[in-house]
């Protein structure tokens, strides 16, 4: 083994050990105070209002300025079910048959301008998100369909009343976009937070240069005493991936929180050796294949089943993960979540069978039965983004070629791509994706419910059994019942009706400067971005 | 001359109006809109009401001609409006980027002039010698190499070279600091893109200088100057060069205008927060108002640069008379 490969292997081993939680000694290091964390962000946020936007480009530079009511545990970020208090003092146990959640708030929390943060601010925030006025855009209103009202019996108590018990409620509350805003500012102007930043988080806004950077300095009044460890942070906008990689190599930035492809990781490890640490995780984003049910022959379940049966997911995972940010084979639920299918359950589904030859023979038989001739041509609509869209698209073409289909890939920039899916609806088969923050399968699978209720299902189908299962899962907090219904829903979606298919789940690779400590990779690039626990070992 | 200047200024109005009509309708011919991109672009589920409210806020559901007249009316009274993507005033969004692009354009032009004019002259004077071949090879390489590619090589070269020499990789800063705040940091960032683009830009100007000089050196008045016994340096610098500069000035003028808005990829390679980068972002975000303002700005820069170049002709060549 040459020295470069040795360095690569050693660094990957260290990184993997850290990711798997084996780096106990390292994790136990005493945090040092001071320093400015510089990180690169691939895009600039459209506005500063988390309630309105949907992009990670908002979360990375803006989340450090805000507090949330509850959040995913930054110290146990690989467990998607570990949700802890941020502004509240204790995670509440639901009462009233699971329909009432009472949160007690921390005392003495203030906004950056010195105004005290009270229950009225939390109520105003969630009212804006859940019950926005007619002219206010709330991107995540649909995640709170179970909420009936938000009440404030006193300044330190917030009560959420639900229409029905729902396990999806707490994960929805923990979404990193739910920044707590100042009631007074919202009362003045509901659009105020689109252009201004005023929070109670670990950092305060210092400077912004449009298109270039956002800087924050430590909040001296932050309610977690002794934190943040950093003096400040600098989020630098850099669109080109190669530049972001070189910026880490040249130490112009210490980290990029979204994720790099495997090749960039290997390049950085080779160049920097022990100065780079790699953290990796399954990623709560998935590429889907959506056949257009409005168009022949994709309205025929036999054709759709043939398409999924042809795809070698187990083999593809092995090879594609070397060149693209996809890896894990899974069903409709994020792998690793208690509601997700295990390997044995997956192998019962079309397209996941362990015997590939049998699977492809069945695909050919179904195509023949449906009257599809050898060499049948169709177009795969795809997004003009390399990672992982075009790579997975090219791989799919080869998979379908194995059963005698001749597929052409049509790639479009993001705008026209979504226009095709949402308005034109004239595609044959399309790549689509679903990318979420907090792992909340009960709501995340809304992508597969009927067209008239989903809002983001582009296949154009209606299946009321799926809708009923979705509603039933969301209206119970019995996890065993949820799991059973989820399996049935998965069987219909991926196998019996082959309504839409999963390719592979994404894989998040974060190579960062080794002096960055206290930040743990999580299953989503939206999570764990308050930076209160991050410190620099310099 | 005054009449000519007024006529040229009046002719700018239909040119700019034509550009305005084209950019407005071409932008809307691209499928999709800014709201759809903003909400659906991350693949997450979103409320359909959010899409309707966003389109309403931005006036995207109004008749297209109403949108056009509202924009063009604002444009002619100097109101560029707000960016559809960031909701910030377009003037403030553009002003910082303009400063970066202007500095890069000036530095690249300077690099180009310093390289191209002496090399073009030497190449013409030493025609068909090894010096001429070297200059021509150097300039053809400059034309053949895209400046962004050269930029990537420069960054990689700096990283690898500095690591080999000093043990720590070094690359230029990726955050712009105005020259009056920190001149060293500013130049450490901008000198490299200026060299990369200036080299490419000099290649065109070198070849233009060479051919213009070759033509002028064959003129009768040059032969007369030689017959009078003037030394070669005076013939070349005083008599030939000034007359050969006319086409060179045109090339430099057009390239300068191009540099102001056309460094789309090079700006991204060096993370320059200039107009080119803003252009790409606004087009990919379907930010109609921003793209329209940028196209109009670049059109205005081109029109004004051509105008200045035309005026410069008169200074260089007294035979040119505008009436």
Automatic annotation (TrEMBL), chain A:
A Gene Ontology biological process term? peptide transport
User: Where found, per UniProt?
Assistant: Periplasm
| Major location category of this protein | periplasm
Entry superkingdom: Bacteria
Molecular function (GO) terms for this protein are: peptide transmembrane transporter activity
> Which residues belong to the signal peptide in this entry?
1-27
Q: Which GO terms describe its cellular component?
A: ATP-binding cassette (ABC) transporter complex; outer membrane-bounded periplasmic space
Residues covered by the Solute-binding protein family domain: 86-432
**Pfam families referenced in this protein's UniProt entry, alphabetically:** SBP_bac_5
Q: Which UniProt keywords apply?
A: Signal
Please name the InterPro entries in this protein's record. Answer: Peptide/Ni-bd (IPR030678), SBP_5 (IPR039424), SBP_5_dom (IPR000914)
Q: Which family does it belong to?
A: Belongs to the bacterial solute-binding protein 5 family.
Q: What is this protein called?
A: Peptide ABC transporter substrate-binding protein
Q: Which organism is it from?
A: Thalassobaculum fulvum
From TrEMBL, chain B:
The UniProt family comment states: Belongs to the binding-protein-dependent transport system permease family.
Which protein are we looking at?
Peptide ABC transporter permease
Q: What is the lineage of its organism?
A: Bacteria, Pseudomonadati, Pseudomonadota, Alphaproteobacteria, Rhodospirillales
PROSITE patterns per the UniProt record, alphabetical: ABC_TM1
* Signal peptide start and end residues: none
Q: Which UniProt keywords apply?
A: Cell membrane, Membrane, Transmembrane, Transmembrane helix, Transport
**Segments crossing the lipid bilayer:** 104-125, 137-161, 244-265, 293-316
Say if the entry is tagged with keyword Nucleus.
Answer: no
């Amino acid at each position: 083994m040459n020295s470069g490969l040795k360095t690569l292997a050693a660094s990957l081993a260290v990184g993997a050990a850290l990711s798997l939680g084996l780096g106990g000694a390292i994790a136990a290091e005493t945090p040092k105070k001071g320093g400015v964390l510089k990180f690169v962000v691939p895009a600039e946020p459209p506005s500063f209002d988390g309630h309105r936007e949907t992009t990670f480009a908002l979360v990375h530079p803006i989340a450090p300025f805000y507090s949330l009511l509850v959040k995913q545990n930054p110290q146990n970020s690989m467990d998607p079910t570990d949700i802890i208090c941020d502004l509240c003092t204790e995670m509440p146990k639901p009462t009233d048959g699971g329909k009432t959640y009472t949160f007690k708030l921390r005392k003495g929390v203030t906004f950056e301008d010195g105004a005290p943060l009270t229950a009225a601010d939390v109520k105003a925030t969630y009212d804006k998100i859940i019950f926005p006025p007619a002219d206010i855009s709330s991107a995540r209103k649909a995640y709170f369909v179970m909420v009936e009202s938000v009440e404030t019996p006193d300044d330190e108590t917030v009560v959420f009343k639900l229409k029905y018990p729902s396990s999806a409620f707490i994960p929805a509350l923990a979404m990193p976009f739910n920044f707590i805003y100042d009631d007074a500012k919202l009362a003045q102007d509901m659009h105020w937070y689109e252009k201004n930043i005023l929070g109670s988080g670990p950092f305060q806004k210092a400077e912004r240069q449009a298109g270039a950077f956002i800087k924050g300095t430590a909040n001296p009044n932050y309610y977690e005493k002794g934190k943040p460890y950093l003096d400040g942070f600098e989020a630098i906008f850099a669109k080109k991936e190669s530049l972001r990689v070189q910026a880490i190599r040249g130490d112009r930035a210490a980290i990029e929180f979204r994720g790099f492809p495997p090749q960039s990781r290997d390049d950085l490890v080779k160049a920097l050796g022990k100065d780079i640490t790699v953290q990796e995780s399954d990623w709560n984003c998935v590429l889907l294949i959506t056949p257009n049910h409005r168009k022949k022959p994709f309205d025929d379940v036999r054709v759709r089943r043939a398409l999924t049966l042809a795809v070698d997911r187990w083999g593809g995972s092995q090879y594609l993960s070397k060149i693209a940010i996809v890896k894990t084979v899974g069903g409709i639920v994020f792998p690793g979540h208690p509601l997700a299918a295990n390997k044995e359950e997956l192998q019962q589904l079309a397209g996941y069978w362990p015997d590939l030859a049998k699977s492809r023979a069945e695909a050919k038989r179904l195509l023949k039965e449906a009257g599809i001739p050898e060499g049948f041509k169709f177009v795969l609509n795809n997004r003009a983004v390399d990672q992982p869209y075009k790579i997975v698209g090219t791989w799919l073409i080869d998979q379908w070629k194995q059963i005698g289909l001749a597929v052409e890939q049509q790639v479009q920039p993001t705008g026209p791509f979504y226009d095709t899916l949402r308005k034109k609806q004239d595609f044959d088969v399309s790549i689509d994706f679903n990318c979420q923050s907090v792992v909340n399968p009960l709501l995340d699978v809304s992508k597969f419910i009927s067209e008239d209720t989903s809002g983001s299902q582009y296949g154009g189908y209606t299946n009321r059994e799926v809708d009923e299962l979705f509603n039933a899962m969301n209206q119970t907090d019995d996890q065993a019942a949820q799991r059973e219904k989820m399996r049935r829903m998965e069987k219909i979606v991926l196998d019996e009706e082959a309504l839409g298919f999963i390719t592979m789940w994404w894989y998040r690779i974060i190579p960062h400067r080794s002096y960055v400590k206290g930040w743990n990779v999580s299953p989503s690039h939206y999570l764990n971005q308050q930076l209160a626990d991050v410190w620099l070992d310099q | 001359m005054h009449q000519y200047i007024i006529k040229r200024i009046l002719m700018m109005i239909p040119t700019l109006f034509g550009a305005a009509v084209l950019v407005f309708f071409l932008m809307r011919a691209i499928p999709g809109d800014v709201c759809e991109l903003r909400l659906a672009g991350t693949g997450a589920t979103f409320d359909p009401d959010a899409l309707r409210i966003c389109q309403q806020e931005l006036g995207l559901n109004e008749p297209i001609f109403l949108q056009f007249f509202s924009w063009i009316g604002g444009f002619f009274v100097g109101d560029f409006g707000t960016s559809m993507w960031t909701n910030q005033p377009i003037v403030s969004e553009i002003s910082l980027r303009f400063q970066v692009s202007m500095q890069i354009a000036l530095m690249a032009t300077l690099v180009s002039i310093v390289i191209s004019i002496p090399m073009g002259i030497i190449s013409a004077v030493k025609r068909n010698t090894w010096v001429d071949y070297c200059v021509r090879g150097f300039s053809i390489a400059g034309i053949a190499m895209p400046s962004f590619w050269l930029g990537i090589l420069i960054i990689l070269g700096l990283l690898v070279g500095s690591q080999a020499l000093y043990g720590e990789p070094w690359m230029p800063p990726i955050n712009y600091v105005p020259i009056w705040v920190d001149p060293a940091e500013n130049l450490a960032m901008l000198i490299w893109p200026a060299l990369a683009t200036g080299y490419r830009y000099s290649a065109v100007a070198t070849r233009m200088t060479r051919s213009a000089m070759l033509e002028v050196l064959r003129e009768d008045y040059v032969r007369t100057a030689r017959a009078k016994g003037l030394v070669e340096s005076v013939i070349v610098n005083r008599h030939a060069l000034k007359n050969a500069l006319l086409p060179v000035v045109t090339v430099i003028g057009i390239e300068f205008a191009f540099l102001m808005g056309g460094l789309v990829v090079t700006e991204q390679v060096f993370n320059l927060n200039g107009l080119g980068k803003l252009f790409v972002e606004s087009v990919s975000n379907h930010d109609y108002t921003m793209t329209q303002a940028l196209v109009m700005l670049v059109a205005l820069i081109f029109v004004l640069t051509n105008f200045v170049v035309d005026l410069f002709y008169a200074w260089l060549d007294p035979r040119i008379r505008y009436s």
